[in-house]
Amino acid sequence: MGQAKPMFLPMTPHAFILRAREGKNPFWMYLVGILLVFLANILGSLPYTLVASLRMAERPVPLSPEELTNPMALGLHPAIGLFLLLLSFAAGVLALWFMMRFLHERPFLSLVNIRDRFNLEKFGTAAGVWMALMAGFELVAYFMDPDNYTFTFEAWAFFPTLLVALIMVPIQTSMEELLFRGYLLQGLGLGTRRPWLALLLTSIGFGLLHGANPEVATFGPLILLYYIGFGLAMALVTLMDEGLELALGVHAANNVYGALFVTFPSSAMQTPALFTLSEYPVTLMTVVWVVATLIFIGFVAYRYQWQDWAKLWRPLAPASPAEEPLEE
After folding, report:
1. Which of 183, 218, 258, 328 could cross-link to 266 by cystine, CB 3.0-4.6 Å?
2. From CA 170, how far away is CA 86, in angstroms rounded?
3. Which H or E run contains 98?
4. Beta partners for residue 243, in sequence order
5. Rounded mean pLDDT of 232-245?
6. d(CA 77, CA 60)
7. Which residues lie below 8 Å from residue 29, measured CB to CB, with a gap of 6+?
8. Contact predicate 171/90, CB 8 Å
């Protein structure tokens, strides 16, 4: 089975979405694809589930649901626990590769950009700029309330976790980006022919996916607006840049920062970060995130000379007058 060459140039309107036309796109195939990713995530979570079950059997007092996802509460080394927790996302990436190769029959990198060549410069720029923005605003937050920060560095826990996080966290974030801003954004964009609608639907789906996170139990359902907002920003960046590298860089940097530098008690990822917040200032951090996102979008829009913002609202032209939203 040969690999199709990209059919679109950077100036082609909606080039990233149109890459889906290089493969097969029946509606049922997307349903099967989502199911395969879901099943792969379940299979990938079995090692952690098995270890957690064995640890629970040794304890006279049952653990709370929050403690079950905290490797340290189970008595595991945090690096081992983090590795086991994130294996499910590695399985999800493999499922996506399988779907693209054998179901949709198009290149795996067609989920990433229009060139079949990963742009490391864009990924690195996005990760570096986002990390700098997070660190800068964190410094401001520290000076506003230094008592909220506790230095919790422990070498035996931090350095092994550092190695695992630098490998596994980008795999975790890449799976989410490939699924939502790659696979589903392209599929819904092709199916509805309306980029703005695909942007909105994938962002809502991304937010709902995080509904089981411990942050939601702590801060209430309104925190889902943060996840939806993050999805909107990453989808916008992906559509404007006609590629996923910027979103991949931001998401990886965002989660690596949370895993290694500053964490808080109800974080979905319990790790031995350098600093731990006594209390997560939701309002302040929401404002910080909005400002940082606007700065980032402004920076990359200028750097990469985004001009055609109207394409977000323009419908896709069908491949032929008879083309249906998703081919039967």
Report:
1. 218
2. 10
3. helix 78-98
4. 113
5. 98
6. 21
7. 103, 104
8. yes
Q: Which of 8-22, 37-51, 265-279 has the lowest mean pLDDT?
A: 8-22
Question: And the tokens for 112?
Answer: 């990433």
Report d(CA 57, CA 61) in Å as an integer: 9
Residue 252 vs residues 47, 111, 255, 258, 324: alpha-carbon distances, Å: 24, 17, 5, 10, 36
The number of angstroms, rounded, from the C-alpha of 38 to the middle of its chain's C-alpha atoms is: 15
Q: Looking at this protein, which amino acid is placed at residue 146?
A: P
CB 199 within 8 A of CB 236: yes
Over range 94-111, report the average pLDDT. 97
Q: Cβ(271)–Cβ(238) under 8 Å? A: no
- Mean pLDDT calculated for residue range 81-107: 97
Q: Look at strands 149-151 and 275-277 and give their pairing.
A: antiparallel
How far apart, in whole angstroms, are the C-alpha atoms of residue 115 and residue 10?
Answer: 9
Q: Within 13 Å, how many C-alpha atoms sit on residue 156's CB side?
A: 2
For the record, the structure tokens of 6 come out as: 């990209």
List the single range of 66-80, 93-107, 230-244, 263-277 with lowest mean pLDDT.
66-80
